[in-house]
Amino acid sequence: MAEQHSRAQQQQMQAHPTDPIKSLVPQNVPSKSQILAVVTLFPVGGALLCLAGLTLVGTLIGLAVATPVFLLFSPVLVPAALTIALAVTGILTSGAFGITALSSLSWMINYMRRMRGTAGEQMEHAKRRVQESAAGQMGPRTGQKDATPTTRMLL
Q1: How far apart are alpha carbons 155 and 146 in whole angstroms?
Q2: Alpha carbon 89 to chain centroid distance?
């Protein structure tokens, strides 16, 4: 039984020996636009890679030349760089605080403008309620218990 199974596998392998390789190769063919894109982008990518290499080499040469100069002038350059960095940080921080303050003031002014309309309405409503309650309390003292609220306000 095992021999028959191994023979069947060998016959399948002999019939299609390229099947495992065919599974690695894509079955669909690339389109003309895809081929054109690869043909166009391959030289562009190569040129950019060459430029990146030249830039790296130039940077390393410049660093090799500038390192002794930096070492000689470091007692002057380091404090100067720190001073400039602190000045730039102070200016940027001042600007950030100024923008924050202006935006906060703008928000508060807009909030107050919105509240002025609603606060005025609330004050008018409160005044009416006080007048109504005062008129309601004055009605029993004057002996006019059945007067309407509008006539109470007139009293």
Answers
A1: 13
A2: 23
Q: Measured between alpha carbons, how far is 76 from 84 in angstroms, rounded to an integer?
A: 12
Structure tokens at 114: 């919105």
CA 9, CA 2: separation in Å to the nearest integer? Answer: 11
The pair of three-digit structure tokens given for residue 143, joined into one six-digit string: 């002996």
Supply the DSSP symbol for 29: P
pLDDT tens column, 30-66: 788 888 888 888 889 999 999 999 999 999 999 999 9
Are 153 and 132 spatial neighbours (Cβ–Cβ below 8 Å)?
yes
The pTM (predicted TM-score) of the whole model is 0.36
Residue 18 has pLDDT above 60, yes or no: yes
- In whole angstroms, give the CA distance from residue 116 to residue 129: 20
Q: Which amino acid is at 19?
A: D
CA 133 from chain center: how many Å? 56
Q: How many residues does the chain have?
A: 155
